[in-house]
Amino acid sequence: MSEDRHPAASGALAAWALDACPSDEATVIGEHLSACGPCSREAGRLRDTAGLLAAAVAVRPPPRLRESVLAAARRSRPGTSAGSALDAGAAATATAGMVAGAVAGAVPAEDLAGAYAEQVAGMDRLLGTLTAAHWRTPVPRYASVLDLVAHLTGNDAAFAADLGLPAGRAGGAREAWYAQAGAVVRGVSADARLLDRRASLAGAERVPASGRVALVQRAFETWTHADDIRAALGRPAEPPPGEHLRFVVELGTGLLPRALRALGRHHPGRTARLLLTGPGAGEWLVPLAPGEGPGLPDVTVIASAEDFCRLLADRIAPARFPHRTEGDRALADDLLRAAATLGCD
Amino acid sequence: MDASEAAPARDADLRARLAAGDDDALGEIYDMYAPLVHGLARRVTGDAEAARDVTQEVFVGLWERPLAFDPERGSLRGWLATLAHRRAVDWVRREARRRRPPPEDADRTGPGGADEAVLAGELASGVKRSLNALSPPLRDALELAYYRGLTYREVAVALGIPEGTAKSRIRSALAQLGRRLESEGLFP
């Protein structure tokens, strides 16, 4: 149906913007919007118009609602409140801290810090739901959830030390992890310049990298381990928003040329194009040997951005990675094998 | 214009503060937009308790996932209205499945009928003017869809018109409303 292709042109988008489409149609349109810039911008405009319709019916909420909403928010994710380092001024500094050559492009440091903060909040919510038996449940590569969380705390502590941030504090596994992760969140949010320091990536080789790249890895590892725990407990995976998947893809594609050489499968003068779909969609050109810029692509790999991140985490084996290839298939196979070596434990 | 340039920058700053864990920012956002979120939820659900629940879910949701809001794609006001509307509509459709028709009260018949303190800002009155300037068939379709949470199919049934007509009325109504708000200077 033509309107499935461009709902902006057919009138379906206006109904969608008012939540007036039956759910099956809304799903189709939502998928289209995640891939179509013009329709997505038009949808944003229509939703802003709808937002003004909301303004016409504004009424004062009951006075007691304010405190109960803010209390519920604090329960779900502890805040920092006034007086801490994370006041408006610090946040504004972080916002202004655009540093060139982020992971690959220029991502504001605040977005990277926010991506990590969001994963920390998600992990904390998850850990808050665990029973004693859950903590003892084995997860792949670890004897128990407890061991996995201790491992995560160790990696966060190493990163904090690289950046000169304070160590966490001793306590139960959850408290120790949260104290360390929280120290990192507060530190990098208060002073984005810390991310320009050198750090090393978690993993056996402790590859040197910028603080920015290492912070993306922290977010990535936290997400991956949260999903490890969810999988072990039979709960559904919770992928991060597309924007964060994109940071992870940037991290991975930046490391791929060196990973290819480490496997002895680098290809000087050749380039792969990654065409990733779904949330986090985008296009990346990857030189297939270190120290080179990308050229014209010799092969295109088409896959979902979320799956690609799981491949990078070594949570999907290259042989089972859902993708399509156009061009030199052997190059694509090497690329995927190298990608799967980038995950840390 | 100053106002239209300041809003996106302010939205981006608030988002950064939320992401950094600054709960004072959440309080500021609540003070700015709780009447809008709560009023919309109240109008769509027609239920005081549901409106409180929706309001809480919207602000806690923003706090938990501040980066889901993308200032490049619209305003914070629009984003919160979107979240509130979606949750309110979900509630209405859940109730409908339980075969309990949403309560009919004067509060829901159209803008201006509420017995609660309707906030009469310049924005609200401008939107009401623009809404009342629409032809009745267009206004009916828009109000049933947005303020009552009906799908365009249900709008068609309610108005006794074909589904395609319902869809195109909703589209024309929203487009005309957008143009009028623009000419009133309420919509950049």
UniProtKB/TrEMBL annotation, chain A:
It comes from the Bacteria. GO terms for molecular function: isomerase activity. Keywords: Isomerase, Transcription, Transcription regulation. InterPro entries: Anti_sigma_zinc_sf (IPR041916), DinB/YfiT-like (IPR034660), Maleyloyr_isom (IPR017517). This is Maleylpyruvate isomerase family mycothiol-dependent enzyme. It comes from Actinomadura fibrosa.
From TrEMBL, chain B:
The keyword Calcium does not apply. Residues 29-98 form the RNA polymerase sigma-70 region domain. It holds the Pfam family Sigma70_r2. The keyword Transcription regulation applies. Keywords: Sigma factor, Transcription, Transcription regulation. Residues 129-177 form the RNA polymerase sigma factor 70 region 4 type domain. Belongs to the sigma-70 factor family. ECF subfamily. This is RNA polymerase sigma factor. It comes from Actinomadura fibrosa. The lineage of its organism: Bacteria, Bacillati, Actinomycetota, Actinomycetes, Streptosporangiales.
